[in-house]
Amino acid sequence: MSRPDVREPAAPTPSDPGPAAPGRRRTTARAGISAATRREQARLGALLVAPAVVVMAVFLVFPMLNAIYYVFVDFDGLDPNPPWVGLANFAEMFGDPDVWAAFGNNLVWIVGGTVAPLVLGLGLALLLWGVRRGSAVYRVAFFLPYVLPPVAVGVVWGWIYAPTRGWLNGVLEAVGLDGLTRGWLGDPSTALYAVLATAVWTAVGFVFVIILSALRNVDVDQVDAALLDGANWWQRLRYVVLPQIMPVFLMVAAITLIGGFAVFDLIFVMTGGGPAGASDVLGTLAYSNAFQLSRISYGTTLALAITVLAVPFAIWLDRLQSRLARERIGA
Amino acid sequence: MTRTKKAYAPGRAGIGRHLALGGLALLTLFPVILVLSTTLKTSQDVRVNPFGLFSSFSLENLRTAWTVGGFDGYLLNSILLSVPSTVLVVVLSTMAGYAFARLPFPGRTPAFYLVVLGLLVPFFTYMVPLYFQLRSMRLLDSLVGVNLVLASTQLAFGAWFMRAFFTDLPTEIEQAARIDGASEWQIFSRIMLPLVTSGMGALTVFTFLQNWNNFLVPLLYMPGGGYRPLTTGLYLFVGGRSVDIGPLAAGTLITILPVILLFVVLQRQVTQGLISGAVKG
């Protein structure tokens, strides 16, 4: 998500490296293009973008605008002219203990759901780095969870966590830890973390694949040189390898972090936010308010709040990427 | 010394590393193995021996899911919902990506902001107003409506993705064609398009998986139950049944098997799509 292309096509600045990767050619503004060609380009450009813009305007922008309208009224899904309530939905949101609890769960999710996949994905990528034989098989195995449907993932992990006949409890009993067995998704103290563990299982593959591709570009001679200088495993990782993959690592971290705000599917499938709200995040709370309690305006307010919370992080991501792109060009 | 070196530098991995990788791979794949083995058990076997692998092989569970669970219909619906929406995404994204990368046109900046918005906003932010909008458009319980919504959730990524591919193409080809008298449309369709087929392939696979895996869009916007896909069917199957885990495993297997096959065959395209989307843009 780099900054949008705001360059004026009519004013070519060939020295401007542009926002993206090095070696990328400037394509829109060149000397020696006739006015007729430019008109033709403008017409074709508008024509090619129009269908995508129309679909997105109707099914994304319009409902978004409606969402903003819903926030200021009290809509129950039936009344075609809902009463205007101003900021009452926001006032209720800030005073609602359920919202704060859900927000706390969001924070747990953002931290745990970012740190764990980063560490595990990096570890797997380092372990596989340089392996030739069977490398494709391992890659497929580690990445597969990421492409599976969240519903199916939720179902299967539901069996693993099941109170009786569940695999996890079965394993715990087998090793003599009977005291730890429980209904993992039904116990308020573990429900959130059980779902989070499942989410980590799916997210590790994403981090792994991207970091592995970054490792391919690491200068191995430098690693060898450090080894000859007597650097140990940790020193080589810390001072030679990590700095070289840092741009990609930060990028993955930022994407995972922002994904943490948008968490919804897995919690919805596995616990629905329960038991008694123990695993609710703002997304599931928004859903239950809107679709189960017919509190459509309040639910929409919660959903919008998450988006607003994510915006500073998205801007940070955008800045980060621009800076890294400049650094890569400078190098 | 050579042993520690192997931990980083490309080269041959020792048996220890393969054991570690193999163990982790099995651990990662364990839930998938669990689905497969439970599906192939008899219901008797599931009750007596829930933890072991199947001791007697049976297709009874698959048959039950297929006929009683209605997964044959769900499978057809999944295809009807993911193929058209994927084609729509790939075609519209390729067109838009080309324009964003190589054509100056009025309104490019606001149009591009729309793409950025689409990348940022999570679906559940506007899923409720969209429900009422679709209702008033008479697009609830409709293949057209759900396909369009699925496509709209993927278009921003697609346009972003294809834009990166078109931006990478050299300018000289385009200039040469222009000197030879090719129109702008011909440059796009005859010259540039064939050069990004690998990108289109990657986008096709990635989008198809996303649309196949989506369950919330069909769940919300097919309240009447018409054309429910596998994922939504599975979700309702879970909610509506008792402890009979065998057919449930079979339904899960039917849902994930096409994903696994497609992914194993085309994993390069999937990862390429992911890496380009995450890092390249």
From TrEMBL, chain A:
Signal peptide interval: none
Positions of region (Disordered): 1-32
SUPFAM superfamilies attached to this UniProt entry: MetI-like
Regions that span the bilayer: 44-72, 107-129, 141-162, 191-215, 245-270, 296-317
Ranges annotated as biased composition (Pro residues): 11-20
Listed Pfam families: BPD_transp_1
CDD domains: TM_PBP2 (cd06261)
Gene Ontology biological-process annotations: transmembrane transport
Keyword list, A-Z: Cell membrane, Membrane, Transmembrane, Transmembrane helix, Transport
ABC transmembrane type-1 domain: residues covered: 103-319
Keyword Membrane in record: yes
One Gene Ontology CC term in the entry: plasma membrane
Chief place of localization: membrane
Entries under InterPro entries matching the protein: ABC_transporter_permease, MetI-like, MetI-like_sf
Similarity annotation: Belongs to the binding-protein-dependent transport system permease family.
Entry protein name: Carbohydrate ABC transporter membrane protein 1 (CUT1 family)
TrEMBL record, chain B:
GO annotations of cellular component type: plasma membrane
A Pfam family reported for this protein in Swiss-Prot or TrEMBL: BPD_transp_1
GO biological process terms on file: transmembrane transport
InterPro entries given in the database record: MetI-like, MetI-like_sf
PROSITE patterns named in the record: ABC_TM1 (PS50928)
Membrane-spanning ranges: 21-40, 79-100, 112-132, 144-166, 187-209, 245-266
Residue ranges annotated for the ABC transmembrane type-1 domain, each copy included: 75-266
Subcellular location: Cell membrane
Keywords: Cell membrane, Membrane, Transmembrane, Transmembrane helix, Transport
Domain of life, per lineage: Bacteria
Membrane topology term: Multi-pass membrane protein
Family of this protein: Belongs to the binding-protein-dependent transport system permease family.
Annotated protein name in UniProt: Carbohydrate ABC transporter membrane protein 2 (CUT1 family)
Biological source species: Blastococcus colisei
